[in-house]
Each structure stands twice: as structure tokens, then as C-alpha cells.
Amino acid sequence: MAHIHLEDGSFTVFWAIAWWLVAIAVISLSIIWLRKIKKVDGRIITVAGLCTAAAFAIFQISIPIAGGVHLNLTPLIGILTGPAVGSLIVLIVNIFSAAIGHGGWGLIGANCLINITELTSAYFIYKGMERLTKSVFARAGVATLLGLFIGNVAMIAIILASGIQGVNQSKADILWGLSLIAGINMMVAVIEAAVTGYVISYISKVRPDMLKEALYA
Predict the structure, then answer these.
(1) Closest CA to 78 of 217, 207, 214
(2) Does the model's pTM come out above 0.85?
(3) Is the distance from CB of 126 to CB of 144 less than 8 angstroms?
């Protein structure tokens, strides 16, 4: 879903480094929290490994809509592993993706922040809706849609703040173009919401402990 597919050099060095530093700070806090507060066991590490592999694979599958879009599975990652572990997962996925040309190296920091926004939003929305409905599918679907919407807003904000080198359009024109991309992303988000809702519903029936591990962290 929301992912900056620009080449290295699209952002100035200042902004590329700035987003990297913010991402490092967020991920460092996640590591500190995992080491000192939340004791991660082998079960969550196994789930994290599976989520990393699945997310990296799905990142590379392009859906032929408006030049190609893809699913992220970031809401699913957030619901299954929580924000802290999820932050480490998207860092690894973005590094591997950049290594095969899916996004520039200088944009890893910005893309990590976007993906962390998606998974964290989905996690808290899913958890917060527990009192509103007992339908796991509905909670996961709504959390996915809202999480991806917030991620698209974050993507637009980051690009507008950074600017794109070599582009002579005004910020209003850039915002219009990005809004169209976000609109297309949200149409595909409906597919991802259905996929996430189905997967979380299935897991809640066969392995409910996998969800409790993240949601009551």
C-alpha cells in the first residue's frame, strides 16, 4: 500500500538523513522496550519470522492497477506481533526490498516510518474495537482500512515536507497527484482488509494465543 517508490536522489540528503534518524529513534525505542519491558519468547519470534517472509514476498507481487500497486500486510503484522516487533519486521523488509531495487536506500527511513504508522494504527484500532464488536473479521478489516488510510496520509505528508528533486510542480499539484495515488491505494486496501480479516479470523479460531501474545503486550 503506502510506499515511496522513488529512486535515490529524489529527496535531498538532508531529508533522507532526517527520516533515517527518526526511524532509527523509533526502532531503538522498540528494541529497548522489548529488551527491558516485554520479554519476547520463541513463539513471537517464530511468528515474526513468518510475517517477515510473507511481507517481503507480497511486497514484490504487483497488482496491475494504475501502473502497479501491491499489498503490504503491515496491519496484519501489527495485529499479530504488536508495534515494537512489527517495527523491526518492516525495517528488515524495507532493507531487503531496497536491495532488489524496490525503493531507494535513502528512502528506507521514510518508508519504515510509513509502515510503522500503518501497523501501529491497525494494532491500536483492532485492540480498541474489542468492546464495540466481537466480530474478529470486522475488527481486523476496519483496522486494516483505517491503518492503511493513516499510512497514506503519512506518505503524503513526508513527500510534501521533503519535496522531490527535479520536479518543478507546485506543492498543490504534487498534493493532487499524491491524493490520486492514495485513492487508488485505498481501493486496493479493500482487498487487503478482506485478506487480513480472513487470516485473523482463522487464527482466532485455531490459535487464539497468537493474538493474545501481541494484543496484551
Answers:
(1) 214
(2) yes
(3) no
Residue 5 lies in a domain: no
Helix or strand holding residue 170 (H, E)? none
Q: Where are the beta strands (DSSP E) in 117-168?
A: none
Position 3 in a domain? no
9 three-state secondary structure: coil
**Residue 72 near residue 144 (C-beta atoms within 8 A):** no
Beta carbons within 8 Å of 172's beta carbon, 6+ residues apart = none
Q: Is the pLDDT of residue 57 over 80?
A: yes
Residue 104's domain is classified under what CATH number?
1.10.1760.20
CA-to-CA separations, 65 to 118, 181, 191, in angstroms, rounded: 21, 11, 13
The pLDDT value given to residue 214:
62
Q: Could you give the number of structural domains in the chain?
A: 1
Alpha-carbon gap, residue 55 to 53, rounded angstroms: 6
Indicate whether 1 belongs to any domain.
no
Does a structural domain hold residue 147? yes
CA distance 76 to 55: 9
CB-CB contact of 189 with 148 (8 Å):
yes
Give me the pLDDT at residue 164, please: 87
C-alpha 93/C-alpha 144 separation (Å) is: 19
Would the pLDDT of 87 be above 70? yes
Q: Which three cell numbers stand for residue 138?
A: 470486522
